[in-house]
Write a structure and sequence with these properties.
This protein has one helix at residues 107-110, and strands at residues 2-6, 9-11, 17-24, 32-38, 45-50, 57-59, 67-72, 77-82, 91-98, 118-119, 123-127. It is mostly beta strands and 129 residues long. Strand 7 and strand 8 (77-82) form a beta hairpin.
């Protein structure tokens, strides 16, 4: 599985961005996809994930109500719609695929970056006036 993240940029506080994670090598509907972020000087943190084989979207508390993760199987792409952006959302955002486990992962598995098997490159989001 190869992942290509895009959509980052500079946005003012309160603005919106949509990040895309395009997959190749395997259908995106057959594995779970997560978004993580890492700000300068900070550790990588979980943002959101979408499971496969049924409903299941998961969010970090700090993005609930502002960010939405979705999947377009026809485009083999997972999106992260980010609204009401804050300066503290500034970070490199990475998408990752949970594509090697024996069964559908539970939520707590998808919260951990170490659970994922493939990673895309980061896309920088800067929220500033």
């Amino acid at each position: 599985v190869q992942l290509q993240a895009s959509g980052g940029g500079l946005v003012q506080p309160g603005g919106s961005l949509r990040l895309s994670c395009e997959a190749s090598g395997r259908a995106v509907g057959t594995f779970a996809t997560g978004w993580f972020r890492q700000a300068p000087g900070k550790e990588r943190e979980f943002v959101a994930a979408v499971n496969y084989g049924g409903p299941g979207t998961y969010y970090a508390d700090f993005v609930k109500g502002r960010f939405t993760i979705s999947r377009d199987n026809a485009k083999n792409t997972v999106y992260l719609q980010m609204n009401s952006l804050k300066p503290e959302d500034t970070a490199d955002y990475y998408c990752a695929a949970y594509a090697g486990g024996p069964s559908r992962p539970i939520a707590s598995t998808l919260w951990r970056g170490s659970s994922y098997h493939y990673w895309g490159q980061g896309t920088l989001v800067t929220v500033s006036s």
